[in-house]
Design a protein that fits this description.
The protein is an alpha/beta fold. It has helices at about 40-45, 90-95, 135-140, 140-155, 170-180, 195-200, 230-235, 265-270, 285-290, 310-320; strands at about 1-10, 10-15, 25-35, 60-65, 80, 85, 105, 120-125, 125-130, 160-165, 185-190, 205-210, 220-225, 240-250, 275, 300-305, 330. The termini are close together. The structure holds zinc ion (2 copies).
Length: about 325
């Protein structure tokens, strides 16, 4: 089978590998679409202590084409979305229900062969049957599952107002997830006019460029201030927009070494909550509910359908946001 392989940091090549076989408790999936994510760029650059060589790609959807022994409830021909997180189920973190922090953490496309290939093998329990969605839409189950985990961490109050920094693919998912989770109005902030336009189409009350005044929109501040930018300066600015009792959600992936200045007194005195959200934790079914019910739209977020050969180009889009008007890029091997 054809597969894109990171052989060493900053080296990606198309290789002909032997197609994997579904072992006990596993299924093999003929990959239909795999989303390109910032994590793929980080792996390509050699971060995350990647074990190379690696076939990246963790936002995977496709069709089951081989069912291993010991698998119940899945059949050949079924369209599935894959949860990439493979947790041991036995360690301290797993026993506390924090699978994404498993002490023996493995993930498709991060530590094991992922979806930038014609076939991928996954534990059967990681494959979720999908109804009424194209594989392209189903490829959003994983990033939207991460958003669903963020929403579970955030616990938005009914009727609240949110300020959201970043209207890239993840920001636009977060925007819609906030709106189906009790938030009444979302103000989105993004420097790219097309992204602001899309944010409004997808339900944002207002979409502003950075620096445009927001005070009048929420004179007492926002109940929720969220970011999907990974930009430290944005994080630093967040408390100033929060209402008393407000919640700050850090969702973007900032550089590991980045530091910001926050006022502990301000967080104390105004009852603010600072909330992180990492990966997904059994929340892929929530994402499928949102997608299958049509409550969350992902088709407008797809900017490119590319073949495996173009993964390089897709990573360049990730490296230079705004390039080629890229939003979500799907690789369709
Ligand atoms: Zn991702
Ligand atoms: Zn574990």
């Amino acid at each position: 089978m054809r597969a894109a392989v990171i052989t060493q940091p900053k080296t990606l090549q198309l290789e002909n590998l032997e197609a994997p076989q579904a072992g006990f408790g596993q299924v093999r999936v003929r990959v239909g679409a795999t989303g390109v994510c910032g994590t793929d760029l980080h792996l390509y650059e050699g971060h995350f202590h990647a074990r190379l060589p690696l076939v990246p790609g963790h936002e995977i959807a496709g069709v089951v084409d081989q069912v291993g022994p010991g698998v119940a409830g899945l059949a050949e021909g079924q369209v599935v979305a894959l949860d990439p997180v493979i947790a041991c189920g036995q360690c301290w973190a797993c026993r506390r229900g924090q699978r994404q922090h498993c002490l023996h953490f493995e993930a498709l496309g991060v530590t094991r062969a992922g979806g930038f290939a014609e076939y991928v093998v996954a534990p059967a329990q990681n494959a979720y049957p999908v109804r009424g969605l194209s594989v392209a839409e189903a490829a959003f189950a994983e990033p939207l599952g991460c958003v669903a985990w963020g929403i579970q961490r955030l616990r938005p109050e009914p009727g609240s107002q949110a300020l959201l920094f970043g209207a890239g693919p993840i920001g636009l998912l977060l925007l819609q997830a906030l709106l189906v989770s009790g938030v009444t109005r979302v103000v989105a902030v993004d420097p790219v006019p097309e992204r602001r336009e899309l944010a409004k189409r997808l339900g944002a009350w207002q979409a502003l460029a950075p620096g445009e005044p927001v005070r009048d929109l929420a004179p007492h501040g926002f109940d929720i201030v969220a970011e999907a930018t990974g930009v430290p300066a944005v994080v630093e600015s967040m408390p100033a927009y929060a209402a008393v009792g407000g919640k700050l959600l850090i969702f973007g992936v900032a550089p590991e070494a980045a530091r910001v200045q926050l006022s502990p007194y301000d967080i104390f005195q105004r009852d603010l909550s600072l909330i992180g959200s990492f990966s997904l934790n059994g929340t892929l079914p929530v994402a499928l509910q949102w997608l299958e019910s049509g409550r969350i739209q992902v088709k407008p977020l797809i900017s490119h359908h590319l073949p495996l050969e173009a993964l390089h180009q897709a990573l360049a889009y990730k490296e230079h946001p705004g390039m080629g008007q890229a939003l979500k890029v799907l690789i369709e091997p």
